Amino acid sequence: MVDHFQTLGVAPTFRLDEAALEARYRELSRLLHPDRHAAGGATARRVALEKSIALNDAWRVLRDPARRAAHLLALRGIDVGEGSGGRWLPPGFLLEVMEIREAFDEARAARREEEVRRLAERARRERAAALEAIGEAFDRNDDEEAARRLSVLRYWDRFLAEVRAWEDEAFEESHG
User: Where does 9-112 have alpha helices with state H?
Assistant: First the structure.
């Protein structure tokens, strides 16, 4: 398995300094850019391109907290792939999310914008709480709790994707 932390040369931890991570990525991007290796011939350009691709992959994973947590857990031998989420969810969570989604769908269909916004804000708070809980679990080296909280985070992320779609539609309707 590729270690994206190693690729970017940063410590394998959930709580990363995102500004420092971005600075490191930009520095390595400049150094590895294939154009800088044009004089080295085809082999040098190919190697630089392969390293650039690996760097971009590492950047995409580590800059996203959910993907970073999943990668860190995978490095520790814990599979929290998208298909395994139900295994890690806390009891009663699916029912809670289902009720919120139904309320969101009903409010959206009835054009009760204030209720939709209230539900969206709740989801944003729940997502923030899940992110903090992931960090705390990693701080305690409690990988199973981190996996549970990551599964929760993914549900909130999917719900918030629906919210963003609704917000985009509402914007288009009001400005179209």
Answer: 18-32, 41-62, 65-75, 85-88, 93-109
Residue in the block written with tokens 């011939």: 41
pTM of this prediction? 0.86
Measured CA to CA, the distance from residue 74 to residue 60 in angstroms comes to 16
Mean pLDDT of 128-152: 96
pLDDT at position 64 is 96
Q: Are 123 and 117 in contact (CB under 8 A)?
A: no
Q: Which of 160, 88, 176 is nearest to 120 (CA)?
A: 160
Domains assigned to the chain: 4-63 (1.10.287.110), 82-175 (1.20.1280.20)
Rounded to 10 degrees, the C-alpha dihedral 24/25/27/33 comes to 160
The larger pLDDT score, comparing residue 25 to residue 167, is at 25
CA pair distance 132, 125, nearest whole angstrom: 11
Distance CA 175, CA 47 (A): 48
Phi, psi (rounded to 5 degrees) for 36:
-70, -15
